[in-house]
Structures are given as structure tokens and as C-alpha cells.
Amino acid sequence: AKKRSNDVVTAEQQWWRAEPDPNTDAAAAAKVQALETERRALLATLLGSNWDTPETNQAPRTMAALTGPVLGELSPETKQAVQEISARSQQRGAAYLESLRKDGKEQDPIEVARMRQQTREELAKVLTPPQLEEFLLRYSSNASALRKDLRGFELSPDEFRNLFRALDPIDQQLQLNYTGVDATSVQQRAMLQKQRDDALRLALGPDRYREYQLARDSALREAVTAAQQAGAPSQAVQTVYQINQAVAQEQQRIQNDATLTPDEKAAQLAAVNQEQKSARDRALGLTAAVPQLPPQPPGLSPSQVYSYRPGETVDQIANRYGVSSTAIFNANPTVDFNVLQRGQQINIPPSPAPPAPPTPP
Known about the structure:
The protein is mainly alpha-helical. 63% of the residues lie in helices and 2% in strands.
């Protein structure tokens, strides 16, 4: 146990990183395996070859690596006390989960938060405030959740420490106010969430906060990249971002529509993707791609006839061709739009000409 604590350098020692270093993890796994081999060989030497029984061959308990400039300087007695507190915390959690399993119940987030708070209080009795903070930065559930939230956003150790100091007290209050549907509870959670957002923005500063938003929002990140590649003005980012959000919602609607066959879903998703590209090209000042329409009857131009695909609405078709829904209804007096069938031909009236630009004074 002492060798595992002192000799194994794990990625968790880089407590500010959202993504662990794979090389560090691989080296740590190899060292742990070597120590386990040594442990088993020593037990065989001391106890004989038959020592390997279910009672004696239990996996070593996971122990906190109390290393580094702060935790590494703890006295042996303090380290032992911290490890015992950690072990009791694990045992409480395991016992709680086992009781839930037997009773067929779900976890109570408030009870989980209370057990975590109990562990903190026990640690605070044997650690100084700086030592406790160092331990929480590495091993607390709040720090782990913060690292997960910051995945893709690279921070320095000081930045992560400042964020944890600002957000941890608020996160503890949010966890203890997790449930409750009355107006007071809902209002209190909303107030705490706003405090958390404000604290995050203040701790990062305006420039880093924008980078944080960009790292978390794939639609916004894609909009920024598209605008940069097209050399479009910064105002285009918001337009492309809104297009991306609308497309994501429409894609989700299609995927969740149980009335559509897989082929129909694929066709509608392809149409949505084409519409997205056309709208993005217009927003970025590029030439819009011409949508590929199915073959049309002879004598009619592609802009005059459209083959209906299940799941589409008249508004969607109208928007695609730049006409109004009323114009489509008027151009198809014999079509019952409440019972459209796949492939049914719909006349598309000519789109109105854009208004002439005003004459300069």
C-alpha cells in the first residue's frame, strides 16, 4: 500500500485536467501491475502456494494517492487518518447502494449530498484548510463534475483552482436543494444557478468565458469555424449558429417520429442537410447550392412541380422555394393537403421577385 501511494504517479495528480494523459495512465497501470505481481509472489513465499483463497485474494482497496507538494508532506499519522476516512466514506456509499438495491429504490440526491458532506467534515478535523482544498481538488465529486464540464477547454492549474473555489460552495447548496417542487424551492434553485453562472463568468473573465462557451457548444463552435473559413463578418456567426440550432431540432424531430420508415427518415434528413447548407451559404455570402429534386413530368420546370415526401409540412416546402403557404394552396385547388401520399405532385408557383433597391437620394 505504501508503494502504491508513493511510487505510482497517476493522471489524477494533474487534478486540473479534464482529459487524463494516456501515457501517464499507461505507466501507472504498468507500475500497479508490477506491484501486484510482487505482492502475490511475496505472499506465496510467506504462506505457501495455497495462500490464494477467496478470503486472502481480495483486490486491494482503492486508496487516495496522497502525493504532491501539499498532501505529500502530511505526516504518516495524518495520511493514515485520511485513508481511514476515505475508506469509511466508500463503505457508507456501498452500504447505501446495497440497501437501495434490496428495497428496489432509487438514489436520493440529497442523501448522497449529506454523506459527502459528512466525509468533508471528518476530513476537516484532520486536515488544515489548504490541505483539505488540495484533497477536494483531486478527489471530490464536485471537482470531478467540474472537470467533466470543462472537457475540451484547457485550463491552467490556477484557473481550475480559482473556478473550484468560486463554484464549490454554490454546488454544495444546489445538491442539498436538489428536490422540491414548491415555488420556493424552484425559485431558490434558479437563484443558485444564476449565482453559479455569474461566478463562472467572473472567475474566467470575458475572453476566457467566451472560449469556454465555444468549447461546450458544438453548434456555436461549428458556426465560428464556418465564418472564419468563409471570411464572413462576425455578425454571420450568430445567423449560422441559429441555423445550426434549428437544424439540430428538426433532425431530432425526424429521428423521434415513429410514423416514418428508415428510408423516409433518411430522405428527410438528407433534405434538411441540404436546406442547412443552402441557408448557411446565404448567411456566409456564398453561392447557395441548388437542391437536387426528383425527376419531374415532361414540360414542367423543376421550379414548378415537387414530389411530396411523408412527414413534410407545407410550410417547409414553401420556405424551400421562397413562396408562401397560401400561394401553394391556391396553386393546387384539387389537392387535399390533409391526406398527401408519397410522390404526390405539388405545383409550386413562381417565387415573387425581390423588391428593387431604393433609389439613392
